[in-house]
Amino acid sequence: MQNFNTSKENSFYAIGLSYKKADAEVRGCFSLDESAKINLLEQAKKSGVESLFVISTCNRTEIYGFAQHPFQLIKLLCDNTKGTVEQFQKVAYVFKNKEAISHMFRVGSGLDSQILGDFEIISQLKFGAKLSKSKGLFNPFMERLTNSVIQASKRIKTETEISSGATSVSFASVQYIMNTIKNVSDKNILLFGTGKIGRNTCENLVKHTKNKHITLINRTKDKAEQIAGKFNLCVKDFSDLNEEVNASDIIIVATGASKPTLDKSHINTNKEVLILDLSIPKNVHSNVTEIDNIALVHLDYLSQITDETLEKRKMYIPQAESIIDEIKLEFNQWLETRKFAPTIKALKHKLKDFATLELDAQRKKYSNFNETQAEVISNNIIQKITNHFAHHLKEDNNSTNESLELIKKVFQLETTTDV
Known about the structure:
The chain has 419 residues and is an alpha/beta fold. It is built from 16 helices and 10 strands. It has 3 domains: 11-165 and 313-333, Glutamyl-tRNA reductase, N-terminal domain (Beta Polymerase, domain 2), CATH 3.30.460; 169-306, NAD(P)-binding Rossmann-like Domain (Rossmann fold, 3-Layer(aba) Sandwich), CATH 3.40.50.720; 341-411, no CATH class. The protein has helices at residues 24-29, 34-46, 71-79, 85-91, 98-108, 121-134, 140-159, 169-180, 196-209, 221-231, 241-247, 299-303, 308-313, 317-365, 371-395, 400-411; strands spanning 11-18, 52-56, 60-67, 93-96, 189-192, 214-217, 234-235, 250-253, 273-277, 294-298. The longest helix has 49 residues, at 317-365. Belongs to the glutamyl-tRNA reductase family. This is Glutamyl-tRNA reductase. The record marks 103 as: Important for activity.
């Protein structure tokens, strides 16, 4: 599959980096917020890239798109993040064509997640697709592939138990707290940041710790109030951060900022405090550990927590891979159809031209010429002929390219990739 015949560019690539080789600090350098994603897409469009979309989570940043060379996509990533090409080369991966398609299926299906079976990535994939579509950077190939990956993800989630049990970063953080802190239900807990991870963590805190001393702080207070209302929790203003930090026994930071939002200058207490940083890039400055009574745990450590649940999930990997293979086969068959669709379309136009010339000649010969009947008969014959050629091309996988060239030569066809 050297050329997909769906793009003006040569190849389909997946480029990026993930938790597998890049630590939190490096991943933070390549992290893309919403405005950076938009800037990247706009730059891609100006540089002539036809189709591309981006995903960026705490565990990975990836670009999927068409390019003559992967460096075009790598440059887009580095131009819109703090990361450098040199950093990228040390920890990144580049997949092309079939390998890129397979990688996207594994990512979207939770098989490549840091926590096996974590399907949160699929919402990021959907958002990336929607954003690219709004910028006119989403061709039919990309749309079909994305929909196929979403379909695989849904089937794996419903037909296997690979996502059974509560194992996610938000749950792992609560599990860590419960295993580390005695009498956790009596401790004062501060949750700073109420984005997606913050919301999930809050829900797990309420459900598993039975703690009623949970305070929420967010830069946008109404977002915190929406969550607090569900669980009857306390919300404080951002200006109260220092006071709440020093009143808390456990602090969870999930602010998603581009630089640390909590450092040792905020802390003035002699009691033991556990701080969990669930953010990428890191939102808690490492200087907090200079204070003897402070323990800091980062998301990367929490993500490594494995238990019986994860071991059980591994049993369902073959079943998940079988579902992926099935849907990937359907996608590849569609792809093969697209390869000859422009030729069939051009053939149909050619046959219609023949029919028009012949009908004009017959119309001049017969005064009682039946226009409607002649039109129906010619259209039916054209459809049967094109269907016959299409069926042959679908069945004859080994010589499709040769057959296409022969059809073009015999009928003197000029085709385009616009179908």
